[in-house]
Amino acid sequence: MTPRTPATTPVTGTPDAAPAGVAFAADQARLARRRRRVRLTVVAAATLSMTLASCSSSDDGKPASSSGSSASSKASGSAGASAPADGNRTQADTGLPTQAELDAATGDVSKLTTKQLAGQVIVGYYQGTSPQAAADAVRRNGLGGVIIMGDNVPSNPTAESAGLPAVTKAVQGAVKESGRSWPAVIGIDQEGGPVTRITSGVTPLPGAMAYGAADDAALATQLAKDEGQELRSLGVTMNFAPDADVTVGPSDPTIGVRSPSSDPQRVARAVNAQVAGYQQAGIVPVIKHFPGHGSVTTDTHVDYAVQAQSVEQLMKRDWVPFASASKAGVPAIMTAHIVVKDVDPNVPSTLSPKVLTGQLRDKLGFKGLIVTDGMNMGAIVKKFDRGGAAAVSALEAGADVVLMPADASASVSAIEKAVASGELTRQRLIESAARIVATTRHQHVSAPDASVRGSHDDDARRLAKASITQLGGRCGRDLVGSRVRVEGGTAEHRATLTKELKARGVDVGLQGTRVNLLEGGVYNAGESSAGGGAEATSPGTSGAIKAGNSGVQIALDTPYPLALRGSDTVGLAAYGSTQPTFAALADVLTGKAKAGGTLPVAVGKDGVGSSACR
To answer: What local confidence, expressed as pLDDT, does residue 533 receive?
Structure first.
């Protein structure tokens, strides 16, 4: 087992508390007036220095090409770069782009027309699984890239000719054809656990709560690097992970096992470690969901949520991981469509300059890419997105990447019109486009070969053994007899555990020690959003599971159902249902391994840090 990384110094947010935000009227006329005011994101003047001359490119709609002669290959200077940023590097830069990289990117994107800039800041959704559909989505509106959702993943995702490698190659080709010399953004939500888009051909990983239970920074970094290498081998350049939300427990309806912990310190350690691993693999990690989705009780896939806590309270809990990651140089943060009542009481954070610029950039000091959550979600489309207006509002607020708008064409048109009217400046578009280009170049490396795909089961088993948490019983001893009866769960999960137990000499049938599998947890994210794209890939329940009594109960998602176990029942929290997880469970059940994890959340009377093996 990899030694745990000690945490002798707590991770904290910035110490000063923010003043309460000025309240705005809720009516749409007032909101429209606020949107029309020109808002420039507050950044250091040196970050994206530009002159009027740099903005003098033709705006007549004709294609504007970029030769890339000023690319970061001439300006990088980042530690760790093993070769110029020409797509042939095998070792990635970490941290944020350098000033030279930002300046080079600014020069390149300044050559684009306003329409091309509007497309560049959008990462869109496409229908189906074909490479042509993905490439056409980019060509149609000049998009900066695409997001791969579950329904975009081919049946054989790792096949070179018809799988994701073909899709990602087609997208990169479409960007290159348009005269853009930089990599496309090809993003995916490959968190592990319930939000896993690619479910075959790659190493399966559990939900983020497993990382919180293991609380092992070195192991978390290794697993993220493993996953990042597998994603890069498929052509993916950006992962919308890890999740940096601090869950409040069973009352959290959306995040659940996606959160590493209810302890902000554990969350910060897990997040920073995973960010490092993804960057080492050449993947741009996007932590989420600022201003924190773990403590609100509304699912933003359905409607916008309201965060009632004060900024002072948020700084002590929900914002700790984001402040820590910002200080460490995380390259990108995703917003959530959550209203922070203390800052901007009528507008979701994604559309609020007071939250994105005033809090995330100015207070927390974040200097990287701000990526919106899906703009096709109910929290946006129900009230704020008429004719693509939400894309304009997000850019005004300080966002750089407009992710998955319900209508990409309408969004491009709305951005063009906003620049023409003076509501949005062309310089503001250049600023965001330059951040995107500099970030993708900074991280871009040659894709590893296909042999890395699905090759990290050993590390996945290490994570499972380090995270499985035992409540009750005697640590390291057999928890079952020579005969076992596996109950509950799905037929697939019963079969997988049965196979692993039989491989260890256990007779599995209708008699013996009862082992009860508890499925689901508290994950209730909306199943779909306007414009397509399913969110969850595994089911969730309300968490009101009648656990009952049995010899051993195993929670395969959040551990909260174990609070209902009988006094003589051993509980095992697994935080996932992958094959490596079941292999590790079989080792723990048969006394071949100790459960290495501690509770990352409170479960009944058992508090954070509890374990029968501590």
So the answer is: 54
Burial bucket for residue 342 (CB in 10 Å: 0-12, 13-18, 19+): buried
Answer yes or no: 301 catalytic. yes
DSSP structural state of residue 592: S
For 297, other C-beta atoms within 10 Å of its C-beta total 11
- Is 456 buried (19+), middle (13-18) or exposed (0-12) by CB count in 10 A? buried
Measured torsion, CA atoms of residues 221, 369, 77, 440, in degrees rounded to the nearest 10: 80
Residue type, 228: G
**What's the N-to-C CA distance of the chain in angstroms?**
15
- What gap in Å lies between CA 602 and CA 40, rounded to an integer? 43
What residue ranges of the chain have pLDDT lower than 70? Answer: 1-92, 298-304, 521-550
Tens digits of residue pLDDT in 234-281? 999 999 999 999 999 998 878 999 999 999 999 999 999 999 999 999
Q: Is 283 helix (H, G, I), strand (E, B) or coil?
A: coil
Nearest-5° angle of CA 557, CA 558, CA 564?
A: 110
CA-wise closest residue to 514 among 523, 501, 525, 527: 501
Q: Phi/psi at 461 (nearest 5 deg)?
A: -70, -35
Which letter, b or e, does each residue of 219-245 get, where b requires 16 or more Cβ atoms within 10 Å of its Cβ?
Answer: bbbbbbbbbbbbbbbbbbbbbbbbbbb
DSSP 3-state of 386: coil
Give, for 581, the enclosing helix (H) or strand (E).
helix 579-589
Residue from 103, 226, 245, 301 carrying the catalytic annotation: 301
373 in active site: yes
563's tokens: 């609070």
User: Which entry of 93, 226, 373, 606 is annotated as an active-site residue?
Assistant: 373
Q: Specify the pLDDT at position 299.
A: 64
Q: What pLDDT, on the 0 to 100 scale, is given for residue 379?
A: 85
Give yes or no for a contact between 362 and 354, defined as CB atoms under 8 angstroms apart. no
pTM: 0.84
Can you tell me whether residue 185 is helix, strand or coil?
A: strand
Query: Closest Cα partner for 251 from 282, 214, 294?
Result: 294
The values of phi and psi at residue 401, to 5°, are -115, 120
Establish whether the linkage from the previous residue to 289 is cis, with ω within 30° of 0: yes
Q: What are phi and psi of 452, to 5 degrees?
A: -75, -20
**Cα four-point dihedral sign 270, 276, 281, 284:** positive
pLDDT at 253: 79
What are the DSSP calls for 435-502, one per residue?
HHHHHHHHH--PPPPGGGTT--HHHHHHHHHHH-EEESS-TTS-SS-SEEEEEES-HHHHHHHHHHHH
248, 454, 545 from 129: Cα distances, Å:
37, 21, 37
